[in-house]
Amino acid sequence: MLFSYFIKRVLSVIPTILGVTVVVFVILRLIPGDPVIIMLGGFATWEEIEAARKLLGLDQPIYIQYLLYLGRLLKGDWGYSLETGVPGGEPVLPLVIRRFTATLQLAVLSIILASAIGIVLGILSATHRGRVDKIFRTISLLGFSIPIFWVGIIFIIVFSLHLRLLPSMGIGGPEHLVLPTLTLTTYLFGMISRVTRAASLDVIHQDFILTAQAKGLKKSRILVNHILRNSLIPIVTVITLQFGSLIGGAVVTETVFSYPGLGLLIVQGLFRRDYPLVQGGILFVAIVMTLSVLVSDILYAYLDPRVRYAKHE
Amino acid sequence: MKILPYSNKLVRELKDQSSRFVGFVKESSRRDKSIVFALLILFLLIFCAISADFVAPRPYWDQDLPKKLLPPSLEYPLGTDPLGRDILSRIIYGARILLYSVSRVLLISTCIGLIMGLLSGYYGGIVDLLSMRVVDLLLCFPHMILAFGMLAVLGVGLENAIIAASIYYIGPFARLTRGQVLSTKELLYIDNARVIGCSGMRIIFRHIVPNIVSPLIVQVTFNAAGAILLIGALGFIGLGAQPPTPDWGTMMYEARGYMNISIYPLVFPGLAIFAAASSFNILGETLRDYWDIRERTL
User: Which of A135, A153, A229, B30 has its CA 20 to 30 A from that of B149?
Assistant: First the structure.
């Protein structure tokens, strides 16, 4: 049962990814300037330009060009970055993947930290209505109202400039990860704590909690085994969903800390008008985002049997 | 003096609305004081934007290079930036840029999103399928990344940042509107309206929209906060408003290299963005509690 749902859901990703490639292709076509002239420089003759155009398939109608582009993507040829010190340009896909692993490190660390903080805050707010709830709700609200670039800068001012404890930029040992991770955590925990609170409140008022209390179970046991377990589904879903938008947040964090991740790569590509790189980076992020939505859906079905059975009735 | 009948009606309407507003503030502030701060900040923002020319101590473009990067003092309450300009004045003028860009983003995204959501929710079929596919595609891109794609095509600048942000917020808003329409459409009074022969447009605008307007307003308020942060981030990266525009994010972009000399040109504009965004979020949150809309996770 789960398996057929799984297959169906995986297949449904294909049109979405095709759509994404269309959008990215259109973006490239809309960018002002002739790519061939940019590639060959100002000294090319008309014959050379025509020849290069033919070679790249740019003399074909637009839908053929799209199909050619799609074919190149599938073969792993995502174009060449214009200037990264390699003659003839560095292939985009390996570059993007290499930088993405740096971003991934940051993302995974901050998701773990933010989930820990967010779930604790959320559960406490749900179980201690009143003063505690009010304070924690305000904290999480401020958490997602705060500009992350500002948080990053405050962290640098406090921990690097004044206390001289942590490096403010670059990559290297684990100490380089601390400030960017904390910054991204600020971006995330508010959302997670909010969802946890809402989900636990839904559970708390149900009859089986009353039963558990009447049976005389310990409070901690009710909290973990009854409340947390049952409110885990929306929490897990939101955390996986946040993964994609986390990369959006990582862009800003990486800019603040000059952390060489995918986000910084795209930003630098934009400034240098390195469009093959920008295009490849955007496509990669969009695919990651689509896949994280897929994972979130599958996890949801896995955790909540009602979903997968409902879809088959 | 003869008062025209409609002006009397207008006065009554205004009185009515303002007493409703006072009621809202009184009731919500009893539960949570933060709404008072949020409204104060929002009024301050509007006040600064309207009367920046009279409130700001000096012109925002006035440079005084020997007095650059000063800490706060009586002469410069929030210090000076790398070009010796008064930070306080620039923040006050920046309120204009902020309100301008946020209202543009909200106007564009809300109008398009509302129409898409209403039509696809009410009529369904091919309209629904097409527009929801478009929305799905839009939501495949994180907001910063979508903005980057747009800016690569359009070029950097405040206007283009506004367009990029607007396009992002169309998606979630259209989806929310569609969901609300779908759940309202099934109600009995809509069937009744159809039976007595109301046209589709009349049903949508006279019968459906008034009933779904409160969750939409809440969403618009949250979008305002999001748009402030997005445009601020684009400005901070250097892709939004370009110097010497006194945009808060752009001010931080200009001061980034001088952090070890003076932190004030970075701290205060960021604080202003924080204050503005959290005010909109608090307002949205309070409105949601006041209208008792169930918490949604978008």
Answer: A153
Is residue B2 helix, strand or coil?
A: coil
Would you call B270 and A148 a contact, using CB atoms and an 8 Å cutoff?
no
- B33's CB contacts (< 8 A; 6+ apart) are none
Across the range A213-242, mean pLDDT stands at 83
Q: In angstroms, rounded to a whole number, what is the distance separating the alpha carbons of residues B109 and B154?
A: 18
β-bridge partners, A91: A80
The pTM assigned to this predicted structure is 0.90
- Dump pLDDT digits (tens) for A162-178: 887 777 777 777 788 88
pLDDT, position A26 = 85
Three-state SS for A186-198 is: HHHHHHHHHHHHH
DSSP A229-277: HHHHHHHHHHHHHHHHHHHHHHHHHHHHHT--SHHHHHHHHHHTT-HHH
In degrees, rounded to 5, the angle at the alpha carbon of residue B171 between the alpha carbons of residues A93 and A277 is: 15
The reply to whether residue A252 touches residue B141, judged by beta carbons under 8 angstroms, is no
pLDDT at B3: 56
- Which tens digits make up the pLDDT trace of B82-131? 888 999 999 999 999 999 999 999 999 999 999 999 999 999 889 999 99
Say yes or no for a CB contact (<8 Å) between B137 and A290.
no
Please state, as a whole number, how many other Cβ atoms lie within 10 Å of the Cβ of residue B185.
17
d(CA B97, CA B74): 26
Q: Is B29 on the interface with A (CB under 8 A)?
A: no
Polymer length in residues for chain A: 313
Over the stretch B181-224, which tens digit does the pLDDT of each residue have?
998 888 899 989 989 988 888 999 999 999 899 999 999 999 99
In a mutagenesis test of the A interface, which of B37, B141, B146, B253 is the best target, namely the one with the most A β-carbons within 10 Å? B141
Strand partners for B86: B80
Nearest to residue B100, comparing CAs of B52, B34, B49? B49
ipTM above 0.95, yes or no: no
Residue B148: which of A138, A194, A270 has the nearest Cβ?
Answer: A270
